[in-house]
Amino acid sequence: MNKYVLALDQGTTSSRAIIFDENGNIVSVGQKAFDQHFPSEGWVEHDPMDYLETEYAAISEALAKSGLSGKDISCIGITNQRETTIVWDKKTGKPVYNAIVWQCRRTAKLCDELIAAGWQDMIKEKCGLLIDAYFSATKIAWILENVPGVRARAEAGELLFGTVETWLIWNLTGGKVHVTDYSNASRTMLFNIHTLSWDEELCGLLNIPMCMLPEPVGNSQIYGYVHCADPRLAALNGMPVSGALGDQQAALLGQGCLEKGQAKNTYGTGCFTLMNAGNEPLADADRLLNTVAWNISGETVFALEGSVFNAGSSIQWLRDELQIINTAAEVSTLAETVPDNGGVYLVSAFTGLGAPHWDMYARGIIAGITRGTTRGHIARACVEGICYQVNDLLSAMNRAAGAILDLKVDGGASVSNIMMQFQSDISGIPIDRPAIVETTALGAAFAAGLACGVWDELSDIRSLRTSERIFFPHMERKEAERLIHGWNRAVERAKGWVE
Ligand code: ADP
């Protein structure tokens, strides 16, 4: 029995390949970055062929480092940057346009028109999403409208659409399998999360031919087998591709958040918080997103999702613009030079505020500065500001869905002990940091291995993920509430700044 699993993590800036053993340990990693294209203000594109090239290079690097042969590896799981949109020719495999990346704002105006025309309630009810350029639907519509000849070819059934996992699976299987998993499908704004199928009315609204859409499938099942002429993949030919999840949902799974009320937060450039919301999408998710977490062994689990636009980026700002620290890690040591925030709050609304505030006109502020404010206070306010924003998301999730049990953490800034302790103090829940922080890739590997007998049941993920450290709340609730009150006042002052 082969007990290794290969996870492909196709991200926004690089492609990675990670080989896990059956205990969830990392055997080897391959990684290759690719170019970012910014053809116009606010536009972001990638070359879809770069995804293949860098992913194949990462695979051969991981294989070489591991000393394993293809025979040792049981199956392949995929996790990917979500929402990014690719349209290609079914016969030649050539993309008709670059991949339009999730960050790309080119369809913001179309989204404003959809909102003005009153479509928000219907889309929220069917897809669980708030209308935004972020999601795939308007990106597909843009390609169909703006690339010469594409609409006719799409209507003639010559073109295929896919998010990044769809593109990878189609290419890995030699063009045989055109599928999307439910977690990725639920980010397109064309997918009905109640019926787990494409929505005809929405496709009609955006004039998207349904024949170009991939078949929606579960997150842990054999989609097809590798059949690829690229010599770097020779060792993988015939291997099942048996798991796929969008990156944030993969992290929720890899963090072992199997119970309703369990949540994870990724402290990266921004923060992504997802909470397991159980087997039904919430009727009223307030201003959070309802999304499919996964469908495994026929059981669908939903997640509530919210994000903080600027989190780790505020630490980068202290380093690169204010230059009061030399490395990101120094933010913690500097913050530790003061016993508390000294009344200072830093709201890092550099590009507006996301959930639950949703204020595009907010801008960053540092509030409460006195003559005695030091660099230490600013660093501390920066660290704490990230925690308050995550806490705002957790509170919104609590209001929408009931008690959050605990928070599992990952991402570059989760190494900061002072930040994790403050998160626990302010949110009043345990903060659980895993030993292996590659939770996204682990989630994808687990979904794939579960479908191929490497693991037996969903709950096995719990034994693969071990805690490195758990932070427990020490602060009196009264003190936490006093601090949160100050934060809320600072946020009010940051809102609506741009006229
Ligand atoms: P992304 O995937 O969004 O690029 P990462 O998960 O790699 O992000 O995290 C990068 C962020 O983590 C950066 O914004 C940086 O400020 C922050 N960071 C990195 N190292 C540390 C550290 N030792 N302490 C605190 N923050 C850190």
Map the helices and strands.
Layout: E1 4-10, E2 14-20, E3 26-33, E4 45-46, H1 48-66, E5 73-80, E6 86-89, E7 99-100, H2 108-116, H3 120-127, H4 136-146, H5 150-155, E8 159-162, H6 164-172, E9 179-181, H7 182-185, E10 191-192, E11 197-198, H8 200-205, E12 215-217, E13 220-225, E14 240-246, H9 247-254, E15 262-267, E16 271-278, E17 289-296, E18 299-308, H10 312-322, H11 330-335, E19 345-347, E20 365-367, H12 375-401, E21 406-410, H13 417-427, E22 431-434, H14 439-451, H15 461-464, E23 467-471, H16 477-494
Parallel strand pairs: 1-5, 5-14, 9-12, 15-21, 21-22
Antiparallel strand pairs: 1-2, 2-3, 4-7, 6-8, 10-11, 13-14, 15-16, 16-18, 17-18, 19-20, 22-23
Helix pairs in contact: 9-14, 10-12, 12-13
This protein binds adenosine-5'-diphosphate (ADP).
Adenosine-5'-diphosphate binds next to helix 10 and helix 11.
